[in-house]
Amino acid sequence: MLKEERFSKIIELVNEKGSVKTTEVSEVLDTSLATVRRDLNELHALNKIVKVFGGASSIKNAQFISTEDDLDYKFTINTKEKDLIGKFAASLISENDFVYLDAGTSVEALIDYISAENTYYVTNSLTIGKKLSLIGKKVFIVPGEFKKGTGALIGASTCDYLDNFNFSIGFFGTNGIHEQVGFTTPDINEAMVKSKAISRCNKVYFLADSSKFGKVSKVTFSNNPNLEIITNVKNDGKDEIVIRKLKEGL
């Protein structure tokens, strides 16, 4: 089968099903896995599909994010929404919880509203770690390479360190949320840390204002349809905080 034919069939299959596994494409096209992986990479580069771990998702209705704003700018946008989301998220922390806090301004917003006693924290953000310490919380900061743009500590050593922990609850940021593609970020090393931390949490929440929906960044770090998102919706012109799941649609 010629490359152009494979491309056409792959795009048709992905758009029809929403998402497909690499092995599924290989079986349908009767083509080797190596060829399918190359095809998916090329189609992703052409913005025809979205390449995710183990397969591909439809590009329909996705708004691609090719760059990332720096941390200082993020602190200035959607501040009201982040504050409301942070306040709600903090109310979910219970006494004696062992909490993971991902780097990011939406997650940082919850710190001012923490009221639960005897809580312990792990974070990959120096800024969040400092703020927790200033309010008297016991906090562990993971090792790793410092990423200036997001203020996050990332890398293989970070992932290895996180394997030591079992968190009762975790709060995460994301650059984009898409029904088929999942939760995305521009940096593969940051994605690895997020994925590892999520795997160590008993309960996971994403904190994301409504501007994140329908957007896709370079790397999917989770596409679990049951993970919950704390976000804002407009109700009679006012922001209301809700919890929704990826599988429920955006």
Secondary structure: elements and pairs:
Elements: H1 3-17, E1 19-21, H2 22-29, H3 33-45, E2 50-52, E3 55-57, E4 63-64, H4 71-74, H5 79-90, E5 98-101, H6 105-108, E6 120-123, H7 126-134, E7 138-141, E8 145-147, E9 152-154, H8 156-162, E10 169-172, E11 176-178, E12 182-185, H9 188-199, E13 204-207, E14 215-216, E15 219-222, E16 228-235, E17 238-245
Parallel strand pairs: 4-14, 5-6, 5-10, 6-7, 10-13, 13-16
Antiparallel strand pairs: 1-3, 2-3, 8-9, 11-12, 12-15, 16-17
Helix pairs in contact: 2-3, 8-9
Describe the overall structure.
The strands form five sheets. The chain has a seven-stranded mixed sheet, sandwiched between helices. It has helices at residues 3-17, 22-29, 33-45, 71-74, 79-90, 105-108, 126-134, 156-162, 188-199; strands at residues 19-21, 50-52, 55-57, 63-64, 98-101, 120-123, 138-141, 145-147, 152-154, 169-172, 176-178, 182-185, 204-207, 215-216, 219-222, 228-235, 238-245. The radius of gyration is 19 Å and the shape is globular. The protein is an alpha/beta fold.
Strand portion, in percent?
Answer: 25-35%
Radius of gyration: 19 Å
SSE sequence, one letter per element: HEHHEEEHHEHEHEEEHEEEHEEEEE
Q: In whole angstroms, how far apart are the ends?
A: 37 Å
Q: Give the count of helical stretches.
A: 9
Spatial order of strands in the largest sheet: 7-6-5-10-13-16-17
Report the major sheet.
7 strands, mixed
Q: Helix coverage percent of residues?
A: 25-40%
Question: Rough shape?
Answer: globular
